[in-house]
Amino acid sequence: MNLLFGSDQIWRYNEFPKFTGLDPVYWGDYPKNSNVKKIAYAVSMGKMDVGQFDSNEVSGFLANFSSISVREKPLMDYVQPLVNNNIEHVLDPVFLLTKRDWDSLAEKGGFKKAFKKKYLLIYNLNSSEEVYRLATKIAKEKNLVICEFSGMAKPFNFGSRIKDKFGPREFINAFLNAEFVIASSFHGVAFSILFEKNFFSMGIKNNADRVKSLLSSLDISNRYIETGSQLPITQINYRKVNSKLDVLKKKSKVFINKSILE
User: Fold this and answer.
1) For residues 75 and 210, is the Cβ–Cβ distance under 8 A?
2) What is the pLDDT of residues 190-232, one digit of tens each?
3) What is the C-alpha separation between 260 and 45, in angstroms, rounded?
4) CB contact set of 216 (below 8 Å; sequence gap of 6+)
5) Are 148 and 124 in contact (CB under 8 A)?
6) Which helix (H) or strand (E) covers residue 188, if one does?
């Protein structure tokens, strides 16, 4: 039996009230059955603060896996010296589906109906004030209304631009129909790229490595900015981006197939 472990932040260092440290479940310590082949796909640690980790503990956990791939280049650089096998750098699973695949899952017409005008989408998980300032500036310049996805419920806030009641289909639809996106999350960036949107990412602070690694692999590092004064002049060339994505997608699928069949 093959068991795949992945992907987003499953190897993070947890700091919960009743649990601190690495979760052995996500590091392959279970099940103990030796007949189970464990494969790590596109694993992420989240914030890369290697000073928190015990290298001997991490090395022991890594031995649970027959093959390992990670999502971020800094994580690959950290764990490679701790194992004998090669660590592969692959894409987040969201990229293994095509734009057409995701389009077919979207809630049709939802945000077009809710927003009569063209809109700028804010996906601001970190509540960055810099994100709000930049969004307001760009929306004004491009004559867009603002739609914001938030995890914070706001009772009785009728007519607000904030949407805090939505499901997966509405989420996909919001990115699909947006004219512009500003995101402070990895997957906000990922869906912007999948749907070939103009976007900026900012306000991620200590968790920026995840986004920077993805953007660097696609040669669009300038889409991550620290402040609104750093806006690049050039537009995103999605022909080049998609060409690089195709290569990385093929590599990612080869890793999965090879890991399962070997």
Assistant:
1) no
2) 999 999 999 999 988 777 888 999 999 999 999 999 887 778 8
3) 23
4) 73
5) yes
6) helix 186-194
